[in-house]
Amino acid sequence: MDPDVAELTNLLRNARQAVVFTGAGISTESGIPDFRSPGGIWTKMMPVQFQDYLADAQARRVSWERRFEMEETWNAVRPNAGHLAVAELVRRKIVSAVITQNIDNLHQAAGVPEHRVIELHGNTRYAKCLTCGARAEIADIRTHYVAHGDAPDCKLCGGIIKTATISFGQAMPDAEMARAEEVSLAADLFLVAGSSLVVYPAAAFPLVARRAGAKLAILNREKTEQDPYADLVLHREIGPTLTEAVQAL
Ligand code: NAD
Predict the structure, then answer these.
(1) Catalytic-role residue among 121, 144, 148, 235
(2) What pTM, to 2 d.p., does this model score?
(3) In 10 A of CB 235, how many CB atoms?
(4) Are 30 and 151 in contact (CB under 8 A)?
(5) What atom in ligand 1 is closest to the CA of residue 124?
(6) Is 144 labeled as catalytic in the residue annotation?
(7) Domains within the chain, CATH numbers bracketed
(8) Each residue's pLDDT tens digit, 151-162
(9) Ligand 1-lining residues (CB < 6 angstroms)
(10) What is residue 157's DSSP assignment?
């Protein structure tokens, strides 16, 4: 076994309240491209800013059409070995919470209970009213869009509906940020898996945990700016590495 993977197993074995922090990199092995690797999503299309979404019906249409185009992909994707290893760590009570920047619902699909997943950037599998927060289903919105050329307004309050994700320019969700801080402060091990750690404020949590006394491990294909602060850095693929580390526990 690679000594770095053995060290990851060792850190996990000694942890009681580990936190896993994931980014787009944990889902690339499920076939969802990340943002910043070559060929990533941003090399192909500019994101719709939140203010434009609010102000401009055309921006909303662009946003919905992109979302509908992705529907088949979202329905087809399945958790990969990395998600399953994280779920196993939760099941064994080594990991108490999973903070994710991902919007793909794959931690829950892998078996992590809903209340242990903290979604900092929301979830693309459903939509929400921006005024009252009522949930709306993508399939219903699509049916309305096909018939009328626009997404419907909220059935309850008439507000604008948007996928339940956090867009550029949109405020971070207060409750999730508070919970993420709480679990980071309480963590004895903080494991980053598949994040370039450049999107703030999310990328601050590893440092919050480290300062509060947690060991910090970073598992990412490429270097990150936080590598110098980590107790263990693994520039490896997530699925095979986490599987090996968990099997050796
Ligand atoms: P990022 O694209 O900035 O970084 C991903 C990192 O993962 C890269 O450094 C890359 O080297 C690494 N990586 C990719 N595949 C890997 C693998 N198999 N093994 C090890 N490392 C691997 O992603 P980010 O830090 O999450 O920031 C991008 C933002 O985009 C996030 O806020 C997220 O909300 C959003 N996003 C989400 C999804 C998703 O839900 N699956 C996909 C794309 C983007």
Answers:
(1) 121
(2) 0.94
(3) 14
(4) no
(5) 40
(6) no
(7) 1-32+79-121+172-249 (3.40.50.1220), 33-76+123-165 (3.30.1600.10)
(8) 999 999 999 999
(9) 23-25, 27-29, 32, 34-37, 40-41, 101-104, 121, 194-196, 199, 220-222, 237-238
(10) T
